[in-house]
Design goal:
This protein has about 700 residues and is an alpha+beta fold. Helices cover about 20% and strands about 25% of the residues. The N and C termini lie far apart (about 55 Å).
Length: about 700
């Protein structure tokens, strides 16, 4: 195990604020609630004990209900909405249901209620959300939009929906050990659907909803039970686990993984409040918590060790990552599906690709906001100039496809995207189109020249090459905390990328909120030692929309190397505004041409095998083509500003090397070529500016 370099800059962000802030974002209003217990299934080998009431809520007065969403943006007052059908909701106490895996999983049911707090008769269409982050932790205070996290949602429930929130196998109060969206956990998703269909308050019409992890479980559930799930509302979902999130460019996204794994384990063990609130389940909750703590030794630490030391099942593409990738089986989904993403989300790559998989099969929509995993909700909840508030969109979608109403979903454009620099103002900057990728996009190639310029003209003669040296590798430490009950996993970045937009992105946006720094939004400091290729000032606005590919000819004096490529805009004053980026491990460079994307005959989104069979190490001193996938974006480079392509030998905030690969790459010197024989370039998807009007 490597110990942290005490001279290096430490990249730490604590995780509880992430969860608290997520809850704050959706806790945007009140709504009547009443807590009580109807019939709850007793845990195995557990005698019934008197059920205590949940802590007192703040019920809405019967005669004057509180507003559902006080953050409604004045620009979107025409958004779809309708009056609540019921004055209150009833949040049922925790109950356990069996699964085909043999584990019991925890469930919270919320139903519409009359003014006196008694549940309405029903039956109702049901919204299912399944979480790894402990549903009891978010169940104390009902919140509009809470269904996206598994919290009781008065906005949706008072309009005639039942809500079922589930702790997945290995999460929260449920039995078992978390295995990162593994097959056993997924088997429980369909079990929850089957249980709902048997309940007297359910009419059998089921929708799935959620943000992030809960969106991922929703997609898997719709794949497992395509005839039962009638609608999907997925906010910031993952598609390809390896290529889009945890193994970008064939490396380890340790910044993200350290935070995700620690957050998941932390929330799964915080069950003392649930033990106090539900004493009849005390023994069951205690056993579940013990399962989760034991999982540190049974799963977490072996996974970390295997990843760091090159376990083939974890290092390369294969069954492990395909099982955890919803994009593999999107053809099974038959339900109309609404996707939401963000330009710098941790699932930046995946949201539009998931949307694309459903083309010509089901009704679908895609909204891409500005910002990262957390901050995009600041636009989503109040709404924007062209996007209705998220609560209204969710209601409209489910009213159409679960309630059977004419909710006029045809009025929602197929694709709504935030376009950087399009318009000024906090609520401005969204454009619509009929599809993704943009139907009017065309490829334009820009060449990296020996004088560090960026030109549409290919070099006509040999031009100077430029070199860069591999920086010190990231450090890490892992184990248990001093009490032995929590996972400890920290990563320490040593290439300067702890002060970059990538660090904000892969800490889910928490770094930008907790410790905002200029270098998160201006790359002058980070790219000071990079190879920066710049165009002349743009003679007119230049519109980029879609995925980008960098075709870089490089050579190294080692058998392994990394290329990190950023696309920026440089203002007349010298500010370097980040747009998007990508990276690639040299040994993982082999491309599958059949699964790559082409635009007018030009490859513009390479699909790398990332398999052990396709692994190809460098021949030292041999020029080699690196086809780097740069994640999709939408941005205007304004007239008078410059396009920049910045190349570095590392971006540890997004991906770091395991130990075997470090041995091959250590102290390596990489050269970037510019010549007719080795013409390094980038291909951009360019759309006419007139398409914005």
């Amino acid at each position: 195990m490597l110990k942290p370099n005490l001279g290096g800059l430490r990249a730490r962000v604590h995780f509880l604020p992430i969860l608290v802030f997520s809850c704050f974002l959706v806790a945007c209003g009140g709504g009547g609630s009443s807590s009580g217990d109807d019939t709850t299934a007793a845990p195995r080998n557990q005698q019934e004990s008197p059920q205590q009431d949940t802590p007192p809520q703040s019920p809405t007065p019967d005669e004057k209900p509180a507003p559902d969403n006080p953050l409604t943006n004045p620009l979107t007052l025409g958004a779809y909405d309708r009056a609540a059908d019921y004055p209150k909701i009833k949040v049922h106490h925790l109950e356990y249901i069996p699964t085909t895996s043999g584990h019991l999983i925890g469930v919270r049911v919320t139903l519409p209620a009359h003014a006196d707090g008694t549940p309405a008769e029903g039956p109702f269409p049901t919204i299912l959300v399944q979480s790894a982050y402990n549903i009891t932790m978010v169940s104390y205070v009902p919140m509009p939009g809470g269904v996206l996290l598994g919290a009781p949602d008065p906005y949706m429930v008072r309009r005639g929906y039942a809500q079922v929130s589930v702790d997945v196998i290995g999460g929260g109060v449920s039995e078992g050990g978390w295995e990162m969206l593994g097959a056993e956990e997924q088997s429980g998703y369909g079990d929850a659907v089957d249980w709902i269909k048997q309940q007297p308050w359910s009419n059998g019409d089921i929708g799935v909803a959620g943000a992030s992890y809960m969106a991922i479980t929703g997609l898997f559930t719709a794949q497992q039970r395509p005839h039962d799930v009638k609608a999907v509302f997925a906010s910031v979902p993952m598609g390809d686990a390896q290529r889009g999130t945890v193994g970008i460019g064939g490396m380890i996204n340790a910044t993200f993984m350290s935070r995700w794994m620690t957050l998941t384990h932390l929330t799964s063990t915080q069950n003392i409040p649930a033990m106090i609130q539900f004493p009849k389940h005390l023994e069951q909750i205690s056993q579940s918590t013990a399962d989760h703590i034991a999982q540190i030794d049974h799963y977490y630490l072996p996974i970390i060790e295997g990843t760091l030391h090159g376990d083939p099942d974890l290092t390369y593409d294969g069954e492990f990552w395909r099982t955890r990738s919803p994009i593999e089986n999107m053809d099974r989904i038959q339900a109309p599906t609404f996707f939401m993403g963000a330009l710098n989300d941790i699932f930046q790559r995946d949201a539009p690709l998931l949307y694309e998989t459903l083309k010509d099969r089901v009704d679908r929509r895609l909204v891409i906001y500005n910002g990262d995993h957390l901050s995009h909700f600041l636009q989503a909840f109040p709404g924007t100039d062209k996007v209705d508030p998220i609560l209204h969109l969710m209601l409209q979608w489910f009213d159409e496809y679960l309630m059977g109403m004419d909710a006029q979903v045809d009025n929602i454009p197929p694709v709504i995207q935030y376009v950087r620099n399009y318009q000024s103002g906090i609520w401005q900057g969204f454009a619509t189109s009929s599809d993704w990728p943009h139907p009017e996009a065309a490829p334009e190639r820009w060449y990296l020249r020996g004088d560090l310029s960026l030109s549409r003209q290919m070099p006509e003669m040999l031009e100077p090459s430029h070199s860069m040296t591999t920086p010190p590798f990231a450090d890490y430490e892992y184990g248990k905390n001093d009490q032995g009950g929590l996972l400890r996993l920290n990563v320490f970045l040593n290439d300067g990328s702890e002060c970059s937009p990538s660090f904000v992105q892969w800490t889910l946006g928490s770094a930008g909120l907790a410790t905002p720094k200029v270098c998160f939004w201006d790359l002058r400091r980070l790219e000071r030692d990079a190879l920066n290729y710049e165009s002349e000032p743009m003679p007119e606005d230049y519109y980029i929309n879609g995925p980008i590919q960098a075709d870089i000819w490089m050579q190294s004096d080692k058998t392994e190397a990394v290329l990190a490529v950023r696309i920026d805009e440089v203002t007349a004053s010298g500010r370097v505004i980040p747009i998007t980026d990508g990276m690639l491990l040299a040994s993982a460079r082999t491309v599958d041409p059949l699964r790559s994307r082409y635009l007018n005959g030009e490859m513009i989104q390479p699909y790398h095998y990332f398999t052990q069979e396709a692994e190809t190490f460098l021949e030292p001193g041999e020029p080699t083509l690196m086809q780097v996938e740069i994640f999709p974006t939408s941005a205007l480079i304004r007239e008078g500003n410059r396009l920049r392509v910045s190349i570095s030998p590392s971006n540890q905030a997004q991906g770091m090397l395991n130990e075997p690969r470090r041995a091959r790459a250590r102290d390596g010197v990489t050269q970037i070529h510019s010549s007719p024989q080795y013409p390094s370039s980038v291909v951009l998807p360019v759309v006419p500016v007139s398409a914005l009007n």
